[in-house]
Structures are given as C-alpha cells and as structure tokens.
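Worked example 2:
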Amino acid sequence: MSDALPPVAEEQIFSVDTLLKYMGNDDKALAVVSKIVRDACAPGMAPMQQTAVALREERYTDAGKILHSLRGSIGTLGAKRLVTASLKLEQAIAGRLLDQVPALLQELESEYQLVLQAADGWLQGNASQNGQTAQA
C-alpha cells in the first residue's frame, strides 16, 4: 500500500542533478545547465506579477498561459513542488474555481521564491567550482 503515493520527500524544490547526468555530467554539461538555470530564472518574480495582473483583469486564459509557460521552463529544473502548485492553480483557473485562486497563487509564489533562492545558491556554488576548474 505504501507504493500508492510517492513519499513527500520526493517532492523537490530544485534539482538539476538528472539534467546534468543526461548531459554528460562534465564541465561542458555544467556550463550548459548553468546557462539554462540562469535563463529560466532571469525573469525573477515577473511571471507571478504578470499572473496576478491577468487574474485581476479577469484575463484567465492569459493567466493560464503564463503559468503553463512558467511550469514548463522552471519544471526542467527539477522543481516538482512548483510544478504541482502551478498545475493546481492552472486547474482552478480553468475550472473558474475563483475562490481557490488567491490561496493557490500565494502557494505558488512561495514555491517560486524557494526555487529562485535554491537556483541562485546552486549558481553561486557552481560559479566558484567553475572558477576552480578554469584554474586547474
């Protein structure tokens, strides 16, 4: 019965380990993945702000598109918790369950902030590793 649901521990905030592994897990892969992470996180909180504006203006289709795009780009970074939160919000918007939207949006914003913080930490850690590699 324990196989029915994945353990909560499997829900990740951020992890590019699998992506690195698939790309060869070498210095070149690290450079490419670093660029992917930087590019995915470059907009900062703008997608959340754009979503909130679209929702306030009752542009639900636009809000859904922003969230879908965010889920796709940030999802590649192993952000399983963010993907789950985004999908819940997208479904609430699509189903016009508007009373659920504020809480789900807040949950998603919190998860996104965690992803951005984790990604920044990972980038900083790997920037120093890249510097050491370049000197070696």
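DSSP finds six helices and no strands in the chain. The two ends are 51 Å apart (CA to CA).
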